[in-house]
Amino acid sequence: MNRRLLLFAFFCSIVSQHLLSQSFDSSSAANLSARQARHSEEWVRHGIIYEIFPRSFSAQGNFAGIENRLAELQKLGVTILWLMPIHPVGMLHRKGTLGSPYSVRDYYAVNPDYGTLDDFKRLVDHAHAMGFHLIIDLVANHTSWDSKLIGEHPEWFTKDSAGQIVSPNPDWTDVADLDYSRIGLRRYMIEMMKYWVRDVGVDGFRCDVAEMVPLDFWDEARAAVDSIKPVMMLAEGALPSEHLHAFDLTYSWNVYHDLDPLIHQKKFPQSLDNELKQERSAFPNESLFMRFSSNHDENAWDAPDVIKFGERGAMLAAVLVNTLPGVPLLYNGQEVGNAKKLRLFEKDTIDWAQGDEFLKLYSLLFALRKDHSALIDGGMILNPTTNDSCVYAFTRVSGNDRVVVALNFSERRFIGSIKLSSGEIRSADQTVLEDVMTKRTETVSSSGRLPITIPPMGYRIFFTAQPR
């Protein structure tokens, strides 16, 4: 079983246990959903996350290769850079030729294949000067078998009945499991996190398999690094309790796993609304979710989005991910329609000389998010259509700003209308909407009916207010 399937099975188990406990204690669930999620910095809430696999991002496969292309990422509209693990990779029990970046040998060092610590500091400084925030992947659950920690503190690792150190599960044979019942380990990990924030200047962490590490550790660690400066913490997890203190965002696995059946017409679009209602009923108020249509695990172990969904489906997914409430993620290569698996244990370089259709779409979507407050903190209103079995339509609303989105999950052209509510119509007479793609206008009468045509597996996006 590969890492992706193991993680999916693990998250399903965790969430199922959580929901089962809710069924027996609905008052506890209600109390959690009535609580307020931690307040996140504006740069987090407004962010557009770009995940970088340094080994694959450039031909050089190093920090300089990233630094050389910061101007392109800035032009694209990215605001937060997430670097997959930058640390030295273990040799003992290594998988593949180069090993997994998630098999960390030394938390205080950088992978020499990527450059030196000074090279990384220069990348951080350059990114900050250009207005980016930069977070790094933190693999806190396990280390490589030849890690510095396993040599110096074998007592900090999980052992079997025979006293032998074990892996987190039978498939992850290249890593050894850490034991968070050890106070010394907790102190070490928190000091290490403080080092990267205080001395190197990173702006936070994406926390690998966060739910395999005790939540009370994450709560303590967050308070410690926040005492240095406000940071961002992203959990590779999906539990409501993670939003209270430790994490700004969790993974929107629920929406991601709806994409494939929606795009292949195995589910009705309104299943999305069920997922969003579940979020509102189970998670603390104003919880933030990272929305995505691919990431390093899905690309490597399943398929790139253009293969999994097809090109039109991948574009449809991109529009949804970037217009739903939440913070969008772009995995390196998606912006050029990369169809290559980027294997975690080898070097597969992205072919950047591909068509620019995806680049234009992502640039437009990121600009739309930047220009319209409705896509940052606006509410979401579901709009009925004349064919809800194929079309999913909604409006994001913030003050006078409205963004109307309609997605056709059908292989047939949609010719019909969508119904806007009184809260979405700005005057008693009519509302004029501008099409983001064509710049043409459409008029909505006071009855709220918007006539619309959408291509097969296509979309339309409109806005009503002047950009902020």
| Sheet with most strands | 8 strands, parallel, barrel
- Give the overall silhouette: globular
- Roughly how many Å is the radius of gyration? 23 Å
Tell me the count of domains: 2
Second-tier CATH architecture of the largest domain: Alpha-Beta Barrel
Number of strands: 18
Number of helical regions: 17
- Poorly predicted ranges (pLDDT <50, ≥5 residues)? 14-27
Q: Percent of residues in helical segments?
A: 25-40%
What does this structure look like?
By secondary structure, the protein is α/β, with parallel strands linked by helices. The protein has 2 domains: 3-371, Alpha-Beta Barrel (TIM Barrel), CATH 3.20.20.80; 379-463, Golgi alpha-mannosidase II (Immunoglobulin-like), CATH 2.60.40. 35% of the residues lie in helices and 19% in strands. It is built from 17 helices and 18 strands. The chain has helices at 3-24, 26-34, 42-45, 54-57, 63-67, 70-76, 117-129, 148-152, 183-200, 215-226, 253-263, 271-282, 296-302, 305-308, 310-323, 357-371, 374-377, and strands spanning 49-52, 80-83, 133-138, 142-144, 175-177, 204-207, 232-235, 249-251, 288-291, 327-331, 379-383, 391-398, 401-408, 414-419, 430-435, 441-445, 449-454, 459-463. The strands form 4 sheets. An 8-stranded parallel β-barrel has the order 1-2-3-6-7-8-9-10. Helix 11 (253-263) packs antiparallel against helix 12 (271-282) and helix 15 packs parallel to helix 16. The longest helix has 22 residues, at 3-24. Mean pLDDT is 92; it is low at 14-27.
